[in-house]
Design brief:
The chain is mostly helical. It has two domains: 79 residues; 222 residues, no CATH class. Helices cover 74% and strands 4% of the residues. The protein contains 13 helices and two strands, in the order H-H-H-H-H-H-H-H-H-H-H-H-H-E-E. A two-stranded antiparallel ribbon has the order 1-2. It starts with a helix and ends with a strand.
Length: 333
């Protein structure tokens, strides 16, 4: 049997299974008795189709699609009522880090969309300071005269720090959620938010360097900056996942592909808000505090920010045993 014949004969029932899954939304109570029976029958038929595709077309996209469809349908039909506390623990111990690594390419693309404009505009502004007035948005240009006067804008009075920390965290959360939600524009607005914020950082870094304040700026930024920027990249990762699902839905309809990607992306972006709150606390209480040595701020920034990467890249890895020539070997993933 050719792939085209296989698809033509069976694809309509796969689409119907997708439609019923969308109605159920992981809750079978949303289906009436007839729909539930139909879904169970379609699940069994699709499982048979997957077994056939795995044998006849093992290297083709249809096999991957059917594998995912069967797994999702099984999860809807046979899932057990979750233990909420256990689900939360599992999310932090396995769910988030595994999902992060599975979609890590979007994270690196998000980081590049931020970092590359930051580096380029930093050099441009350093060698051509007047360009800052063209590169910065109008609402941020008020910072430039402050720098020209030999000062920075980050000095926060002690009594204002709790309120300022709340404002900073709220602003960063807003930027991150906009980068996430921007995925529904096929990722265009997500990319725009990342490039824009990278441009802002690059211009300000280059301009402060012109007036001998570049190192002082990063003495302030480093304590919270590693974690803060990482969370912006993470929000961008989530948005780009949505955008790619719309651009390349594969065998799914765009609506179904977006729903699947949104469930995964939302699980990632859940981590952004609490960690941005932590970054805001550091930014308002540690970063501007002159009584704290600069080296201690670097330690805080690198330890807090680096801890996230250690956790996200190593937690929740499974060990599987494989027997090769009579010997057991361990494989980590």
């Amino acid at each position: 049997m050719k792939t085209e014949e296989f698809l033509k004969a069976r694809s309509e029932r796969w689409k119907q299974l997708e439609r019923l899954m969308a109605i159920a939304q992981h809750n079978l109570a949303n289906l009436n008795a007839q729909q539930l029976e139909e879904m169970a029958n379609l699940y069994r038929d699709t499982a048979s189709d997957f077994a056939l595709a795995k044998r006849e077309f093992p290297q083709q996209a249809v096999s991957t699609y059917l594998n995912q469809l069967v797994l999702q349908a099984h999860g809807v039909l046979y899932r057990q009522p979750p233990n909420q506390f256990r689900q939360i623990i599992k999310y932090f111990s396995h769910g988030f880090p595994q999902l992060f690594r599975k979609n890590i390419v979007y994270f690196w693309v998000s980081a590049c969309l931020f970092i590359i404009p930051a580096i380029l505009t930093g050099f441009v502004t350093y060698y051509y300071p007047a360009s800052a007035y063209y590169l910065l948005p109008a609402e941020a240009q008020s910072l430039l005269p402050i720098v020209e006067g030999g000062e920075l804008w980050q000095d926060i009075p002690l009594e204002e720090r709790p309120e300022t920390g709340s404002f900073i965290a709220s602003n960063n959360i807003q930027v991150s959620l906009m980068a996430f939600a921007g995925g529904v524009t096929f990722g265009i607005f997500t990319a725009y938010m990342l490039v824009l914020n990278g441009l802002l950082l690059g211009v300000l870094t280059g301009y402060t360097a012109v007036y001998g304040l570049g190192w002082k700026l990063w003495e302030f930024v480093i304590g919270h900056g590693v974690l803060e920027l990482t969370m912006i990249f993470l929000a961008g990762q989530s948005g780009l996942m949505l955008g790619w699902a719309l651009l390349r839905p594969g065998f799914y309809s765009r609506v179904t592909a977006l729903q699947i990607a949104a469930r995964q992306a939302f699980q990632l972006v859940l981590m952004v808000i609490p960690l941005l709150l932590l970054a805001g606390i550091i930014e308002s209480n540690i970063s501007p505090n002159d009584s704290i040595p600069v080296w201690a701020k670097w330690v805080v920034g690198l330890v807090v920010g680096g801890s996230f990467y250690v956790y996200a890249l190593s937690a929740g890895r499974k060990t599987s045993l494989t027997i090769i020539n009579g010997e057991k070997t361990s494989e980590f993933r």
